[in-house]
Amino acid sequence: MNKTVLSFLAHPDDAEILCGGTLVRLAEAGWSVHIATATAGDCGTMTQTPWEIGATRTQEGKKAAESIGATYHCLGEKDIYVCYDQPTLQKTVDLFRRVAPSLVFTHPAKDYMMDHEMVHLLARAASFGYGAPNASTFPLLPGSHVPHLYYCDPIEGVDPQGNLVTPTTVIDVTAVMDKKSHMLACHASQREWLRAHHGMDEYIEAMKRHGILRGKQAGLAYAEAFVQHLGHAYPHDDILVELLGSKK
Ligand SMILES: [Zn+2]
């Protein structure tokens, strides 16, 4: 099996908030880590043009990824406008084809904004299809197959009806919280904006509060929660628990 994990989420900083600690632990376990975003985060500003903030945020994403030895990718879609359509799906399949992940993290089906829900669909389709020889013109790398697929928490852990999602898998990230916080702090443009707005370091604090919430439910200081996709053709063993010795 390829020890290659791909986080495919909508925006720069989603990975650092939702699954960064687990990515750190996988990197420490010798996995090759790839962090991909659908957009460059071009709406994450009150003052700059889309191309200015997009350039800044992709550099921040690259810096965060590189801090754990990971590779950053961006599909170049636009904030608010991510679509599940053929051109975007082709770009997604091509990305999967080049990375050949055996483990994938993406957004849950229901989340607070549609970019996340569209990326969920793109990730599911690409996970299922990227190993089919005719799905992409990129060469089929050894080990390309339907990967283990996990859904990160929706933002704040709640679905659009306000219900707290019940995870299948909870990963202890207590020992890597410093590294996770450092990754998130690389997104300085977002951190400073929130700090100016809230008068406190809300960016990092909100991430920690969620880690504590998920940790409490499993008797841990800090945790990240996931739901494993168990549809037809997907691996059913809980590889995160096998690898990281985590709790349910
Ligand atoms: Zn997002």
Describe this structure in words.
The chain is globular and about 50 Å long. It has 9 helices and 7 strands; from the N terminus they run βααβαβαβαββαααβα. Strands 3-2-1-4-5-7-6 form a 7-stranded mixed sheet, sandwiched between helices. Helix 4 crosses helix 5 and helix 6 (177-185) runs antiparallel to helix 8 (202-216). It has helices at 14-18, 20-28, 50-66, 86-99, 114-129, 177-185, 188-198, 202-216, 239-244; strands at 4-9, 32-39, 71-77, 103-106, 148-152, 169-172, 223-228. Helix content is 41%, strand content 16%. By secondary structure, it is of the alpha/beta class. The mean pLDDT is 96. The two termini are 24 Å apart. The protein has a single domain (4-232), classed as Rossmann fold, CATH 3.40.50.10320. Helix 3 links the parallel strand 2 (32-39) and strand 3. It binds zinc ion. Zinc ion is lined by residues 10-11, 14, 116. The site of zinc ion (ZN) has 4 residues, from loops.
Comma- or semicolon-separated keywords:
248 residues, alpha/beta, Rossmann fold, seven-stranded mixed sheet, 9 helices, 41% helix, globular, binds zinc ion
Would you spell out the secondary-structure blueprint of this structure?
Blueprint: E1 4-9, H1 14-18, H2 20-28, E2 32-39, H3 50-66, E3 71-77, H4 86-99, E4 103-106, H5 114-129, E5 148-152, E6 169-172, H6 177-185, H7 188-198, H8 202-216, E7 223-228, H9 239-244
Parallel strand pairs: 1-2, 1-4, 2-3, 4-5
Antiparallel strand pairs: 5-7, 6-7
Helix pairs in contact: 4-5, 6-8
Number of helices: 9
| Rg from Cα | 17 Å
Count every beta strand, where a strand is a DSSP E run of 2 or more residues.
7
Q: Ranges with pLDDT <50 over ≥5 residues?
A: none
Cofactors, ions, other ligands: zinc ion
Strand content: 15-25%
The sequence of SSEs as H and E is EHHEHEHEHEEHHHEH
Structural class: alpha/beta
Mean pLDDT: 96
State the distance separating the first and last CA atoms. Answer: 24 Å
CATH architecture: 3-Layer(aba) Sandwich
Give the strand line-up of the largest sheet: 3-2-1-4-5-7-6
Q: Under CATH, the topology is which?
A: Rossmann fold
Shape: globular
